[in-house]
Amino acid sequence: MAQERLPESKGHGQIVADILVADDDPRISRALANYFGREGYGVRTALDGEEMRHRITEKPPDLVVLDLILPDEDGLTLARELRAHSEVPIIILTARVGAADEVAGLEVGADEYMTKPFDERILLAHVHSLLWRTQKREPVSQSREGEQVREEQQSSEEDAYIVDWYIRHS
Question: What is the pTM of this model?
Answer without folding.
Answer: 0.73
